[in-house]
Amino acid sequence: MSRSSTLILFGILIIITPFSGFPMAFRSFFLVIFGACVLGIGIVMRTKRE
Fold first, then answer.
1. pLDDT tens digits, residue range 2-48?
2. Which residue segment(s) compose the domain that 13 sits in?
3. Cβ neighbours of residue 38 closer than 8 Å, sequence gap 6 or more
4. Are the C-beta atoms of residues 41 and 3 closer than 8 Å to each other?
């Protein structure tokens, strides 16, 4: 799976997480993890381009 596809997947997961039915603590945890993954992939993609 390419980095772009992974980034899109994490974006979809971030959008779906609030509607998942998990308790608030799990949702907050998942949003932090997914957001950190998006940030990490974005940094890697930017450094590879330069």
1. 888 999 999 999 999 999 898 999 999 999 999 999 999 999 988 88
2. 3-49
3. 7, 10, 11, 14
4. yes
Total structural domains in the chain?
1
**Kind plus residue range of the DSSP H or E element containing 47:** helix 24-49
Tell me the pTM. 0.80
Chain-centroid distance, C-alpha 6: 8
DSSP 11: H
Residue 48 has a pLDDT of: 82
